[in-house]
Amino acid sequence: MKFISKEHEFKFVRLLKLTKSNDCYHRALAYLFSLCDDCYKNVNILFDFDNSLIRTGGLGATWQTATSLKVTRLAFNLFNGYC
Question: Could you tell me the end-to-end alpha-carbon distance of the chain, in angstroms, rounded to an integer?
Fold first, then answer.
């Protein structure tokens, strides 16, 4: 797996530990959310770690930027096919 920085890799590992899973779906989600600072800061709004579910309500959050919204949609789609 390629990371853009050591910080990206650190955030990825942290999020992957929170998901309590190491399958390709959770890895994709952790990779993308750790790539975007806005998504990483608000990851609890976007993902329910206890139940391993995406939170679509985060798509309309006021902190979302054009970039973070694209990252969120891609992460959701890779996680469970959400369109």
Answer: 25
